Amino acid sequence: MSILNVTNLTHMYGDQITFKHMNFRLLPGEHAGLVGVNGAGKSTLFRLLTGSLLPDEGNIEWATHVQVGFLEQQIDLQAGTTIRQYLERAFRYLFEMEQEMNNIAERFAEAGDQLNALLRKYGELQAALEHHEFYQISSKVEDIASGLGITDIGLERDVSLLSGGQKTKLLLAKLLLEEPQVLLLDEPTNYLDTVHIDWLTGYLKRYKHAYIVVSHDEHFLNEITSVIFHLAHQNIKRYAGNYRQFQKELALGQLQQQATYEKQSKEIEKLEAFIDKNRIRKAKQAKSREKMLSRIVRVDKPTDGPPPRYTFSTPGSAAGAAVFETKQLKVGYDSPLFKPVSLKVRRGDKIAIVGENGAGKSTLVNTLLGHIKPLGGELIAPEQVKAAYYWQEDTAPEETPIEKVWALRPDLTQKDIRKVLAMSGLTAEHIRKPIRTLSGGEQAKVRLSELMLTPSHLLVLDEPTNHLDARAKEALKKGLIEFQGTILLVSHEPAFYEDWVTEVWTVGDWR
Q: What is the rounded distance in angstroms from the CA atom of residue 189 to the CA atom of residue 196?
């Protein structure tokens, strides 16, 4: 029996159709991946499944009493709560049960005739706590926190002091501790190092309940899935097997569709030529061919639309040979994060900065850019070097893409701005929506559009491949290879950078 049934689902944004008469189901314990190009509607479908959006038509039916867990997008992590305390909230119902048991114990001395009933209730509660492994909560919290790299931050750290990526990991850890019957995970590997992705892979493979995972990490997706749901052309198709099996089946299906499309196109062309040639001389036969033509069910040409294209330019004025130079530079806030470093970044260098979360990658970059004052040593950064930045957090979530990008370059026409947004893979529908309503991949493309319109000697990119689909990643890689300036790239994805960067800085090795 299905735990989720979606029937005849139709959803529109304005006059644009996102899904049309979609049908699919999820079975108990099924480990599913949800895939599709950026803009196919993966995040929208998750919002529909969780009830934060309502469909225009159709039904979404969850099995009775099924517990569905998903990452909350906006949550207020108030000061005064430690990481450990927040994670223990996953077991709130057990702590409430313990409190009820303690309240009963306080009544034993004066229970009188009610003592046996109280003892029985006390025993039932204690048995329930033992059944749910209440006395192993501390161990469970530490295991999950360690697996996701949260113990490196410190379980007694106040949640209000966490960065955006750390907060995301905290929410994921709490969700895993809750062990819902259905997990809905949108890009869970973002902000995770390789070792923590490996841990999450093993955890999900052993997970006894069902889940649907959105991810553009193909290796991760291949390891954790037994079913793939593919979103394309306003609909969804189910493929049995892991991600690689899906890719093979999809490629075969596209070849077959292409062959059918080409055959049908020739038939249509032949019919149309006959009709045009014989409209007067053989009107009856031409009319018959017109009827035949009108009855043909057209086969779509297999395509996901044009791929994105990214081009980054340098200013007219040239920078000097050196972009940065450091001498025994000490990087950190209260104390150095690693030993003093002497570095030189020359014009045209393309450097990947790698290391575990918390190693100091972002702090190093912000120090080099002058956003954080060094604790010691010398930083030489020529003033004529113009830098452009790609950060994870968006600063104007209520604006539309066209408003945000046009504000950056008011000297351009609206047509120019639309052209750049289209190059990034954003449609006319996307650019009219508030940025906060776009998927992670679509928001990333807005930020990349801004970079394309900012001539610079130096591009600084912080995890730019998070949320991007395979086509967009390939297009971004091509654009960065062709860029004539200097690049500082923070990344956890060696497959993206290892064949084109000129140098790799492994921050963890500097400790």
A: 8
- pLDDT tens digits, 16-57: 888 999 999 999 999 999 999 888 889 899 999 999 899 999
pLDDT tens readout for residues 458-474: 999 999 998 898 889 99
- pLDDT of res. 318: 63
Are 23 and 7 a contacting pair, CB within 8 Å?
Answer: yes
Taking only the tens place, the pLDDT of each residue in 191-217 is: 888 889 999 999 999 999 999 999 988
Q: How many residues does the chain have?
A: 511
Cβ partners under 8 Å of residue 102, min gap 6 = none
284 CB burial (10 A radius; 0-12, 13-18, 19+): exposed
Distance between CA atoms of residues 222 and 227, nearest Å: 10
| Cβ within 8 Å of residue 215, ≥6 positions away | 33, 185, 187, 188, 189, 221
DSSP 376-411: EEEEE--TT--EEEE-SS-S-TTS-HHHHHHHH-TT
DSSP annotation of 89 reads G
- For residues 374 and 331, the answer to whether their CB atoms sit within 8 Å is yes
CA atoms in the 13 A half-sphere facing the CB of 44: 25
Alpha helices in 229-349 (DSSP H): 243-278, 283-294
Residue 389 Rama label (left phi>0; alpha psi -120 to 50; beta): beta
From CA 510, how far away is CA 502, in angstroms rounded?
A: 19
Do residues 347 and 485 lie in contact, with contact meaning Cβ atoms separated by under 8 Å?
yes
pTM of structure: 0.78
Q: What is the dihedral of CA 314, 318, 321, 322, to 10 degrees?
A: -70
